[in-house]
Structures are given as structure tokens and as C-alpha cells.
Design goal:
alpha+beta; Outer membrane lipoprotein wza fold like; 3 domains; 5-stranded mixed sheet; 3-stranded antiparallel sheet; 12 strands; elongated
């Protein structure tokens, strides 16, 4: 009888040890603090001194272009697509037509009033402004041009609380701001291995950044560009949970509970 009791006790201890190791593995500590190696005494050193690559106009970008000249009629034409005949202006058309927007086609051109096809792909906003200003100067006096990318967007996917695509009002956004729009990472997100997918005329480029490392603050990858995709990979614990059948988890929990109860009530059962 004692031999049976010892064997059962040994089995119970092994089950208990398995449950303990399972719990420890499931609750393994991970670093979920951004820039965890940041020295509080050196915060002032992390100013933006890096030279960023300028945002360049890409195919399929939607440009909002505002032209100001000394001629009110030219302003109506270039900004609203409305032609004024003498003192008669179609204000209904102006009211129903927003600021003129131009989509960069597959060849990198926009179709601008009077000027026709103008190639802007690959230019920075300043370069595009200069080019349009020079072209318009041949038609009107002292034109002023402002250009913005109205469909500047980034996409955040993976282990975040609100994965989606987001349209940005400006042409400058940091990786932290992008994660903020997506509701931040979940606890399962691998902060040390975040993937940035960027596409330009030369093709797709991949960057991996470590959100736990303060060095990111002084890198070019800290700032995103239009159409960037930010992908947060899940850690191994989440992947294991995804692979385990829910029924198996339930059975394991029941067995573990019985094993723990058995160990604690062993003496009462056999004495």
C-alpha cells in the first residue's frame, strides 16, 4: 500500500512540476517599455539633429495645389476650375467644388489647367512648387504656389489594438505617433523587432527597428514616409497560444486543477 501511495505521490509531484513550469513559461517576463535603456540624465541630448530624406511626390499621390496670383479670375481657374466671364462668377460651382486636387498618374504627371500634363513624380514639394511657379510665370504675373499631399497615409498592422490605415494631415509623422493612432501595441507585440515596409520607385525596402533601444530616437527610421506599412510581430507566447486547440487548453486546466487538489489533499485521502 505504501508503494502505491509513493507512486501516486510521485505522479502528483510530476504533474505539479509540469503545471508550475507551464505557468512560469506562460508568464515569462518581457520588456514592454519603449526606449528602456534611455538614461534620464541624458534626455536633453536626444534632439532632432539627423538629416532626414525629404518627402518626394509619388505616383498615385493626391496633391492639393493652391495658386495665388494678382488676377482674381486666374485664381478661380487654377484653384476651383471655374472660369469667370466678366463680372459674372459661378459662385454655386465654387461652393460645390473643393480646393482643386490632382492625382499623380502612372507616368508621374498631373493634369493642370492651361498647363496640361506636368510631371512631378520624384520631386520634393519645394521642387514641385518651383517647377509650377516657373511654368505659371509665363502665363500670369507673380504666381505663388502651395502644395500638400492630401492622401498622405500610413498603415499599422499586427499586434496593435486598432490596426488600420490612417490619413495624416501633415507630411511628417513619427513611429510613436503612428503607434498612438493604432491604439499602441498589445502586450504580445515584439517591440524589439518592428518591421517597416517602404515602397518607392526602386521597389520595396524593409527596415527593422527596436522600440526598446534609445538609438532609434536619432535614426531616420524614427520618421515614417507616405504609404509606409508598420508591422508589429507577435511574440512566441502568442503564437503558441494560437496553435493550441482551445479544447486542449481546457483539458489541461482541468487536469492541472485536479493534480493540485490531489497534492494538497493527499494525506486526507490516504490516512
Amino acid at each position: 500500500m505504501n508503494s502505491i501511495k509513493e507512486d501516486m505521490l510521485l505522479v502528483g509531484k510530476r504533474i505539479g512540476l509540469f503545471v508550475f513550469l507551464f505557468v512560469v513559461f506562460s508568464c515569462s517576463k518581457r520588456n514592454i517599455t519603449y526606449f528602456s535603456n534611455l538614461d534620464p540624465n541624458q534626455e536633453g541630448q536626444y534632439s532632432n539633429k539627423i538629416e532626414l530624406d525629404p518627402i518626394r511626390i509619388q505616383k498615385e499621390d493626391e496633391l492639393e495645389i493652391k495658386v495665388t496670383t494678382l488676377n482674381p479670375e486666374s485664381n478661380l481657374l487654377f484653384n476651383y476650375g471655374v472660369i469667370s466671364r466678366g463680372d459674372q462668377v459661378n459662385y454655386d460651382a465654387i461652393g460645390s467644388y473643393n480646393q482643386a486636387k490632382y492625382v499623380v498618374d502612372s507616368e508621374g504627371n498631373i493634369d493642370f489647367p492651361i498647363l496640361g500634363k506636368v510631371n512631378l513624380a520624384g520631386l520634393t514639394r519645394e521642387e514641385a512648387k518651383k517647377k509650377l511657379t516657373e511654368l505659371l510665370s509665363k502665363l500670369v504675373t507673380d504666381p505663388r504656389v502651395e502644395i500638400s499631399i492630401s492622401n498622405f497615409k500610413i498603415t499599422v498592422l499586427g499586434e496593435v489594438n486598432n490596426p488600420s490605415s490612417f490619413t495624416i494631415d501633415s507630411d511628417k509623422i513619427t513611429i510613436l505617433e503612428a503607434l498612438g493612432l493604432a491604439g499602441d501595441m498589445t502586450v504580445y507585440g515584439k517591440r524589439e523587432n518592428v518591421l517597416i515596409i517602404r515602397e518607392d520607385e526602386s521597389g520595396k525596402k524593409l527596415f527593422r527597428v527596436n522600440m526598446n533601444d534609445r538609438a532609434l530616437l536619432n535614426s531616420k527610421e524614427y520618421y515614417l514616409k507616405q504609404n509606409d506599412v508598420l508591422y508589429v510581430e507577435a511574440d512566441k507566447k502568442k503564437l503558441i497560444q494560437a496553435d493550441i486547440n482551445p479544447t486542449s487548453i481546457a483539458i489541461m486546466s482541468i487536469v492541472a486543477s485536479i493534480a493540485v487538489a490531489f497534492i494538497f489533499s493527499f494525506d486526507e485521502i490516504f490516512n
